[in-house]
Amino acid sequence: MASNRSQGGIQQLLAAEQEAQHIVNAARSAKTARLKQAKDEAEKEIAEYRAHVELEFQKKLAASSGDSGANVKRLEQETDAKIHHLKTEAGRISDDVVKMLLKYVTTVRN
Protein backbone atom coordinates (compact mmCIF):
# COMPACT_ATOMS: atom_id res chain seq x y z
CA MET A 1 0.00 0.00 0.00
CA ALA A 2 2.89 2.36 0.69
CA SER A 3 4.10 1.61 -2.79
CA ASN A 4 0.70 2.53 -4.20
CA ARG A 5 0.70 5.72 -2.23
CA SER A 6 4.19 6.72 -3.41
CA GLN A 7 3.21 5.85 -7.00
CA GLY A 8 0.07 7.97 -6.63
CA GLY A 9 2.12 10.80 -5.14
CA ILE A 10 4.63 10.57 -8.00
CA GLN A 11 1.78 10.57 -10.54
CA GLN A 12 0.24 13.53 -8.80
CA LEU A 13 3.59 15.38 -8.87
CA LEU A 14 4.04 14.59 -12.57
CA ALA A 15 0.54 15.84 -13.32
CA ALA A 16 1.20 19.02 -11.33
CA GLU A 17 4.49 19.48 -13.18
CA GLN A 18 2.76 19.09 -16.55
CA GLU A 19 0.04 21.51 -15.51
CA ALA A 20 2.68 24.03 -14.39
CA GLN A 21 4.49 23.56 -17.71
CA HIS A 22 1.23 24.28 -19.58
CA ILE A 23 0.67 27.41 -17.49
CA VAL A 24 4.25 28.60 -18.15
CA ASN A 25 3.88 27.89 -21.89
CA ALA A 26 0.58 29.76 -22.00
CA ALA A 27 2.16 32.71 -20.18
CA ARG A 28 5.10 32.71 -22.62
CA SER A 29 2.74 32.63 -25.57
CA ALA A 30 0.67 35.47 -24.12
CA LYS A 31 3.83 37.47 -23.44
CA THR A 32 5.12 36.88 -26.98
CA ALA A 33 1.74 37.87 -28.44
CA ARG A 34 1.63 41.02 -26.30
CA LEU A 35 5.19 41.96 -27.30
CA LYS A 36 4.32 41.48 -30.97
CA GLN A 37 1.18 43.59 -30.53
CA ALA A 38 3.17 46.32 -28.73
CA LYS A 39 5.79 46.26 -31.50
CA ASP A 40 3.08 46.57 -34.17
CA GLU A 41 1.44 49.46 -32.31
CA ALA A 42 4.80 51.21 -31.89
CA GLU A 43 5.60 50.80 -35.59
CA LYS A 44 2.19 52.22 -36.47
CA GLU A 45 2.73 55.23 -34.17
CA ILE A 46 6.20 55.76 -35.63
CA ALA A 47 4.81 55.66 -39.16
CA GLU A 48 2.07 58.15 -38.25
CA TYR A 49 4.57 60.47 -36.55
CA ARG A 50 6.97 60.21 -39.48
CA ALA A 51 4.13 61.07 -41.89
CA HIS A 52 3.13 64.03 -39.70
CA VAL A 53 6.70 65.35 -39.52
CA GLU A 54 7.16 64.86 -43.26
CA LEU A 55 3.93 66.79 -43.93
CA GLU A 56 5.08 69.65 -41.69
CA PHE A 57 8.46 69.66 -43.44
CA GLN A 58 6.82 69.78 -46.86
CA LYS A 59 4.59 72.67 -45.72
CA LYS A 60 7.60 74.63 -44.44
CA LEU A 61 9.54 73.84 -47.58
CA ALA A 62 6.68 75.05 -49.76
CA ALA A 63 6.31 78.18 -47.65
CA SER A 64 10.00 78.99 -47.77
CA SER A 65 10.13 78.28 -51.49
CA GLY A 66 7.28 80.71 -51.99
CA ASP A 67 9.11 83.24 -49.85
CA SER A 68 12.22 82.64 -51.89
CA GLY A 69 10.41 83.65 -55.06
CA ALA A 70 9.05 86.73 -53.33
CA ASN A 71 12.52 87.55 -52.03
CA VAL A 72 14.01 87.25 -55.49
CA LYS A 73 11.36 89.55 -56.91
CA ARG A 74 11.85 92.06 -54.09
CA LEU A 75 15.63 92.00 -54.57
CA GLU A 76 15.25 92.52 -58.31
CA GLN A 77 13.00 95.54 -57.68
CA GLU A 78 15.45 96.99 -55.16
CA THR A 79 18.35 96.42 -57.57
CA ASP A 80 16.47 98.08 -60.43
CA ALA A 81 15.64 101.05 -58.19
CA LYS A 82 19.29 101.43 -57.15
CA ILE A 83 20.48 101.17 -60.77
CA HIS A 84 17.95 103.81 -61.80
CA HIS A 85 19.10 106.06 -58.93
CA LEU A 86 22.78 105.64 -59.92
CA LYS A 87 22.03 106.41 -63.57
CA THR A 88 20.07 109.50 -62.58
CA GLU A 89 22.86 110.73 -60.30
CA ALA A 90 25.50 109.97 -62.95
CA GLY A 91 23.50 111.91 -65.53
CA ARG A 92 23.08 114.81 -63.13
CA ILE A 93 26.77 115.19 -62.26
CA SER A 94 28.39 113.97 -65.49
CA ASP A 95 28.74 117.50 -66.90
CA ASP A 96 30.46 118.65 -63.72
CA VAL A 97 32.82 115.65 -63.76
CA VAL A 98 33.72 116.22 -67.42
CA LYS A 99 34.44 119.92 -66.73
CA MET A 100 36.58 119.04 -63.71
CA LEU A 101 38.57 116.45 -65.67
CA LEU A 102 39.12 118.85 -68.57
CA LYS A 103 40.26 121.55 -66.16
CA TYR A 104 42.85 119.24 -64.55
CA VAL A 105 44.01 117.85 -67.89
CA THR A 106 44.39 121.21 -69.54
CA THR A 107 45.90 123.08 -66.61
CA VAL A 108 49.71 123.10 -66.55
CA ARG A 109 51.50 123.35 -63.24
CA ASN A 110 55.11 124.14 -62.64
Automatic annotation (TrEMBL):
GO CC terms: vacuolar proton-transporting V-type ATPase, V1 domain
Entry annotated with the keyword GTP-binding: no
Keywords: Coiled coil, Hydrogen ion transport, Ion transport, Transport
Molecular function terms from GO: ATP hydrolysis activity; proton-transporting ATPase activity, rotational mechanism
Gene3D superfamilies: 1.20.5.2950
Superkingdom assignment: Eukaryota
Keyword ATP-binding: no
InterPro entries from the UniProt entry: V-ATPase_G (IPR005124)
Coiled coil ranges: 28-59
Function: Catalytic subunit of the peripheral V1 complex of vacuolar ATPase (V-ATPase). V-ATPase is responsible for acidifying a variety of intracellular compartments in eukaryotic cells.
Family classification: Belongs to the V-ATPase G subunit family.
Assembly, per entry: V-ATPase is a heteromultimeric enzyme made up of two complexes: the ATP-hydrolytic V1 complex and the proton translocation V0 complex.
Protein name per Swiss-Prot or TrEMBL: V-type proton ATPase subunit G
Organism: Rhamnella rubrinervis
